[in-house]
Here is the input.
Amino acid sequence: MTATTHEEHHDEIPTGIKRWLFTTNHKDIGTMYLWFSFIMLLIGGLFALVIRAELFQPGMQVVDPNFFNMMTTLHGLVMVFGAIMPAFVGLANWQIPLMVGAPDMALPRMNNWSFWILPFAGFMLLAPMFVGGNFASGQGPAFGWTFYEPLSGQYDKLVFFVFAVHLLGFSSIMGSINIIATILNMRAPGMTLMKMPMFVWTWLITAFLLIAVMPVLAGVVTMMLTDKYFGTSFFDAAGGGDPVLFQHVFWFFGHPEVYIMILPAFGVVSEIIPTFARKKLFGYASMVYATASIAFLSFIVWAHHMFTVGMPVAGELYFMYATVLIAVPTGVKVFNWISTMYRGSMTYEIPMLWALCFVILFTIGGFSGLMLGVAPADFQYHDTYFVVAHFHYVLVSGSLFGLFAGVYYWLPKWTGNMYSNGLAQLHFWLSTIAMNLTFFPMHFTGLAGMPRRYADYPLQFTEFNVMSSVGAFMFGFSQLIFLWLVIKTIKGGEKATDRVWEGSHGLEWTIPSPAPYHSFTTAPEVK
Amino acid sequence: MSQAAGGYYLPEPSKWPIIGSIGLFLMTGGFGLYLMGMSMITMYIGMAVLVYMLFGWFGTVIKESEGGLYNDQVDMSFRMSMGWFIFSEVMFFAAFFGALYYIRVFADPWLGGAGNNLMTHDWLYPEYTSTWPTNGPGNVGGDFQTMGAWGIPAINTLILLTSGATVTWAHWGLKKDNRSQLILGLFLTVALGFLFVGFQAYEYIHAYNDLNLKLTSGVYGSTFYMLTGFHGLHVTIGAIMLLVMLFRSMKGHFTHENHFAFEAAAWYWHFVDVVWLGLFIFVYWLV
Ligand SMILES: [Cu+2]
Here is the structure.
């Protein structure tokens, strides 16, 4: 392309609300995804604080049990589908075109549609909560985020829940198709698959997982819909169906779903550690193969969520062994990160702090996952706070910390400004300490037998629950520091260089900070 | 925007996606309101908005395509997207096929006391013997008969297989720039597609009126109607896609090297064809 067409077409950025409603720009869409997910994080966090307020002491103080159930349900759903997943799609939107040297996403209009379905789906999920005029009589879903049948079938606003899930799935599938097409079709000349940044690789595999399992989720909620409103018997034993069928189909989606939420975080960490260790990523090829193996295994382990449901022993054994096998590729990743740091010239800038924290705390979550994967032991842990501790270690100190790491890594590139180191340190340390204070005691309450999803508990669990509640409020309010920091950084601050970090590599660091509205309109050459 | 000749085409900001979101929201939300006992008007408005969006959005894409704005790389993006979209559809059907498999191979024998479920059986459903087809220990929906494989379903199999051949024949015509072969092939395919849907509708009426086989006939009715129903819906969508291709062919769209939309519709058609073979074997034949 010639310089003149470049000048002509480098038109002004559209302004006002229309810019955001009609945009086909991957950076705008990425920004919207990130803000949407942060708002959902705060809403889901608020729900968590209601739970922790109620559980601060034994007995019923703050809310009634149905409302408590509504909070546990919506906390999970909002965090999974509203906060974590869209946030990673936001990172993908911003970063993948920049990292592969593409002018934009492959299908920019569909990209806009993927985002703009989300607020409507979120509304449909949350709106029943307000039916009846006040919260206490709200009629939101109250059957747990896993919406097991037959309990969920008794919810009389089920149809809105089902369609909210359909819309979310539709959005995810379109978003993933776009990501795959961008990665496979839009790479700069010379960037072979095995030269792609790790973040791009992990997203390629994540997008594949999403396309494979979101339709299955759509299928299972469709069965719920017809069971409730049109008289089918998928989950009704009287008609020859089986409620356990629900669990099988749900977890066939559900287990890959946990990798959907963690693989992009693996990618972020694999970008950050080499930058601040000033060494190349150790074992790049093995990282790629490990990610692919994890994705493959994720399809054949789902019933480890159902050990206590009454499966044949052969099934228990198979799902146990297959599950434990996942530790191998995951271990490859953890050792690769450690080996990357070994004898590196390490510095501890903010993204690196989050990444290090990720490696340590995610590994704790991985280990407790192994414990849960051992079928005979799981009979003790099942549906206790030990499970809650496990998945919050992988989802908070895993996925969410991975997201924070990514935002702190790329924020200077997005805004053109460096953020306040002091505020960022405060956010990091408060979050890390609070996270452990909240969730570490849950291992103990769980092992001692405290069941999850109850609004009340026996006296002997009080001390640990007090700790968890104090930690949760600390964690929740620490996120306001992050909000303030981001707004401050957008408004101004010390100017960031193009390269931003001394040890950074990759195409995204070759363009100016802030990244111009249109980047790589001419494809760069990768050697 | 930067869309110099030879570059990757990046569209201007567009109103169609947000209109599509509003349409989806009104349609699904309106259906929900209907199930809550309200009128269906919101749903119809949503459907109208969606149809408006589909015309507008696809119209824009067709104009851009015919205007020569898409280079080979854009074409490849479309191809990949359609392929992965079909894969997502395959997985949607896999959920229902999986449910059928699980019920037949595991859940139903267990209800009859197989495996380690003898006591459950004796206590809960001592009268029930595991069998397929079944509407469960509760005889939900009452006694029913099943649809034989070698009547209409076999004819429908023949129809779909033939239509797969005619659409390929149309494609050959397009590649040879033989427009009348393209149009005739597409016309035959669309006609066979709607014939299939017609037979399917006739079969449903027969099942409801004469066999007492209904959506509510226990788990057999559930799997039968959900699988064949979703398939029928996809046949309808595929036939409409091919109909659009037929109109476009008659207007002179497509060249022998530039006809992704036609191929996408053809891929989709082969996909519904393959799903049907699965249905014919596992739903009708192996009863
Ligand atoms: Cu799992």
